[in-house]
Amino acid sequence: MDGSAVARRITEATAERAAELTRATGVTPCLAAVLVGDDPASVTYVRMKRNRCAKAGIRSRLVELPAETTTAELVATLTELSQDPEVHGILLQHPVGPHIDERAAFEAIAPEKDVDGVTMRSFAAMGFGLPGFASCTPGGIMRLLDAYDVDPTGKRAVVVGRSAILGKPVGMMLLARDATVTYCHSRTVGLSEIVREADILVAAVGRPEFIKGEDIKPGAVVLDAGYNAGNVGDVDFAGASARARLITPVPGGVGPMTIAVLLEQTVTAAERLTGAVEAPSGA
Ligand code: NAP
Question: Is the pTM value of this prediction over 0.90?
Fold first, then answer.
């Protein structure tokens, strides 16, 4: 599955919507990216996201805070951005330092600007099937399945990983689309046997080539969200691609979809906040 190509198409449509909003209201969608400290990976991710914003006609504002920023200071910054009428979407690049209460920081983001889908409200909306912003990587994975006409209905889906931003929500999204979902995690017994049953496999572990090619069910659809040092995913791509019907490469699979969904949700937030498009009730 060519995530770069699908992401490009989504971003082109997003750019058209951003331009239309600017024409109609004079307002350019704006994403505020908050970066705490100077972790090289986080700096790179934020730079990539801001570059894509620029290409899509979305303004981005970079708020750089020192590594020693306290939870209270970060919450104050995010509260200020939540109240700033010129900002439509807020991204807190994570992980933040271990001395910061990350959950408290996320919860300071106004739900209507939570375009990265990290607040409890967004998560609950997804769980209840109500309107809300998706966590971007799971949202991107679902869009990839749609782009390749993979209908999860009745399929055995296995998600390896259960983090709050990735594994858990993608399993819930697959469930909402009528897949029969099994989660695996570090305490799972017999993981290989479970993976072998997967018609749809999502790898979200953070361990290079953790899923072996021989464990892929012939004809399966494999989505590798893992991104490890040296551009290596969580799935042994060479082995798995010999058995899978569809598989995402690393890089160029799930990664670009994550950014495409972030930009799309920023424009949606701007459309709603400017009143150009009515928010669905409950959003
Ligand atoms: P995380 O918070 O570290 O969660 C990893 C999950 O994998 C946990 O649920 C953990 O189980 C499970 N796990 C770890 N070791 C395991 C083992 N030996 N057997 C079975 N399960 C195991 O990581 P994350 O944030 O979800 O990220 C996962 C991967 O996706 C990383 O490579 C990350 O870089 C990548 N990622 C990519 C994007 C993107 O845009 N492409 C976005 C976010 C993350 P426990 O819960 O039991 O500890």
Answer: yes
**Number of C-beta neighbours around residue 283 at 10 A:** 15
Q: Does 136-252 carry CATH code 3.30.1490.100? A: no
**Any residues with Cβ below 6 Å from ligand 1, and which?**
137, 160-163, 165-167, 184-188, 191, 204-207, 225-228, 254-255, 258
Tokens for 178?
Answer: 């009528």
212 a catalytic residue: no
Q: How many Å apart are CA 116 and CA 265, to the nearest integer?
A: 8
- Of 150, 168, 159, 160, give the one whose Cα is nearest residue 221: 150
Residue whose entry in the numeric block shows the structure tokens 């290409």: 55
Average pLDDT of each block of 10 consecutive residues along the chain (283 residues)? 98 98 97 97 95 97 98 98 98 96 98 97 95 97 98 98 97 98 98 98 98 98 96 97 98 97 98 91 71
The reply to whether 93 belongs to the active site is yes
**Domain segments of the chain as ranges:** 3-114+256-272, 136-252
Structure tokens at 177: 């689309």
Q: Which residues of 226-254 are buried (b: 16+ CB within 10 A; e: fewer)?
A: bbeeeebbbbbbebbbebbebbbbbeebb
What's the pLDDT at 34? 98
Catalytic residue, chosen from 113, 114, 116, 199, is 116
What pLDDT is stored for residue 281 in this prediction? 76
